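hiii so my PI (J.) wants the whole complex modelled not just the main chain, which honestly fair. so below is everything: two entries, each one labled with what it is. i double checked the lines twice but i was tired so who knows lol
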Amino acid sequence: MDLLDKFDPLIAERARMGDSQPDPLNIVMDEMLSATEAMIGGRKIILAGTNNYMGMTFDPDAIEAAKDALDAFGTGTTGSRILNGTYQGHKALEQALMDFYGMDHAMVFTTGYQANLGMISTLAGRGDYVIIDADSHASIYDACAMGNADVLRFRHNSVEDLEKRLKRLPAESAKLVVLEGIYSMLGDRAPLRELIAVAKAAGAQVLVDEAHSMGFCGETGRGVAQELGVEDQVDFIVGTFSKSVGTVGGFCLSNHPKFEVLRFACRPYMFTASLPPSVVASAISSIRSLKNAHNKRAHLWGNVERLHGGLKKLGFNLGTESVESPIVAVCLETQDQLFGMCRALLLEGVYVNVARPPATPTGLYLLRCSLGAGHSADQVDRILEAFKAAAHTLQLPLNEKLRAASASENAKAPQARDAAVATG
Amino acid sequence: MSNKDLTNKDIYERICKIVAPFNQKDVSLFPATSFANDLDFDSLTVMDLVAAIEDEFDIVLPLNMLPDLETIQQLSDAVEKIIKR
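here's the output for the full assembly
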């Protein structure tokens, strides 16, 4: 028996997919033309699935800061944050985060994945409880698998289900409720105010992951908790530099007086090399500019309205009935439709993400678009044209839906939401 | 009858009823039926099943117990143990 035999079904599936080119799971960006365009397979492609929400990857100030840091501090730290891997830049980055969020403590991790992995697995230990949303990101599920706490899962965004499960737990036990401001697959928002109220009533502490909401939700871009005015109820905020901040890395913020001890207990923080100085410098530059990026935020939301409204008008079935985030998920019914559409879109000059179970709720095949402040209105129109042409090539059954949609304004979209909630 | 009075057989039978709607391939259910191998449940289905079982018996069945619960009998035994704790 060979160790890799267990992957034979996956190998067979990959082989089947590789027959049709381009392969959506084997995309190579040969050249980056801007924050919104790349050369892929000799074609100029509009990027509509890169989570580059604030278009910061080519921000001139961030690039200059990174170049300066590269010259002054070298290419890497070659060490852990608790040994030789903390430079003045890492401390300045943590200060920039504390200033941005108005909180007392910040820890910077090497990726957003590691921030969730480290925080959740370290905060909740043996005898404690972690309560997570069914649609949680893989990093949250993996954190639960790594830690020693008992893990419970509540129905996606269901306040009632969370409350019911919390009530079954011993009153005196320590509990961590883990929420996300925006869920990355369907792009839907959490009812944070209600969920946090129920969590607090049960004596739980609350961690909110704002990975897909930092930069453009809330008055100064702190996320959904800021927008809903519940930041003072959140014990731990987790986030990432790999989306709105335009580079890579993760972080956690808290006002907890004992927070600093986690630097000496959190293994995904301790046993990995820290971020390179150039990455740290560009993150500082971008975070500082995000606070006052009101015009960019307005432009981004305008882009999303245009794409969401346009796709709905074309007869596509969307993950959310109205705009909730810069993520616009087109719901398809089969894997063949999903990969067929992705390929056809690439041939029309547009890249979007493919997402399927188990990364998505059961039975949902998603063409996941994410827009950024870097997209122009003209690019959004070109994305819409590409969707129209690709659907025509694949003969997707849109016309019937289009008719139904015009007959009753929100004919199809609510069904997708219900399906997601029922299976989530 | 309170949940504490349920026999292992009662619990097994109630679990089989809960499994039924998830059993899309209509596999015959036995104590040794395996969720992964016989019923072909993926991880999401198993977690949805756990939620249904928690609600049926009003118990806490943490997800981290799942790796040890491969068959319907093993799941019934675990539920019985939690109820009588």
